[in-house]
Amino acid sequence: MNEIEVPTPPWLTANIPGCGGKIKVEPADFEVEEIPAYPLSGEGEHLFLWIEKTRMSTEQLCNHIQKTLGLGFGDVGTAGLKDLFAVTRQWVSIPFKYEPEVSKIENERVRILQTGRHGNKLRSGHLHGNRFRILIRDADPSKTQEVEQILNVIRTQGMPNFYGPQRFGYNNETPKIGLQLLRKEGRRVKPFLRKLALSAVQSVLFNVYLADRIQDGLFRTVLLGDVMSKWPTGGMFTVKDPS
């Protein structure tokens, strides 16, 4: 793989006309709310902040908190990355000793909605998922029948969980950096970007494989070696017997 290519995901409902429309015209058109993996314990050395931010990436939020409170890079914990051009709500953890100063974090783009204590620092992956509210502007109101057909396909087949363009950065630059890192081509980057870039390469490979499964008619077929998730508990296992 000399040059990484980010494929355009195929439509699961390519045979059904869409309703048109636009998303993300305004940040408030796209809301993301994190679903935490566990409740707060009410005690411990870590302070959890339930933060709402507007038009601000998770990296920008972490940098803002670090600079405002004088924290080190490893002092701020998050469970996942959230969209930039959106209104998002997510948990962030910091050392509890900074509780008297947390109001300094708030500004016109950042609000603290709730705080609480916990014994562990928040780490990547400590979430059940994300809840979305998406406003589609200028959709064709005459396409209600087609929309219902599309929804029925999703209800019965599920939603192909492709990584979106925000994962790959401007001009797909993020996975390109990740590929350079894997080749040891001498580029030094910040720890946050290093983690993001390597993850972006994985995301490209995931999208390629998922697209192949759809185009080969294997989207709903369990194959030997597939990694499956139990629903709704979320336990992971590798398929050794497809039948």
Q: Report the structural category.
A: alpha+beta
The SSE string, one letter per element, is: EEHEEEEHHHEE
Main β-sheet: number of strands, strand sense, barrel status? 6 strands, mixed
Low-confidence stretches: none
Which descriptors would you attach to this protein?
243 residues; 6-stranded mixed beta sheet; two-stranded antiparallel ribbon; 4 helices; 25% helix
What is the topology?
Elements: E1 30-36, E2 46-54, H1 58-69, E3 77-78, E4 87-95, E5 110-118, E6 127-134, H2 144-157, H3 173-182, H4 191-215, E7 227-229, E8 236-238
Parallel strand pairs: 1-4
Antiparallel strand pairs: 1-6, 2-4, 2-5, 3-4, 7-8
Folded structure, characterized:
It is built from four helices and eight strands. The protein is α+β, with helices and mostly antiparallel strands and 243 residues long. The strands form two sheets. Strands 1, 2, 3, 4, 5 and 6 form a six-stranded mixed β-sheet that branches. Strands 7-8 form a two-stranded antiparallel sheet. Helix 3 crosses helix 4 (191-215). The chain is globular. The two termini are 34 Å apart. The model has no long low-confidence stretch (mean pLDDT 94).
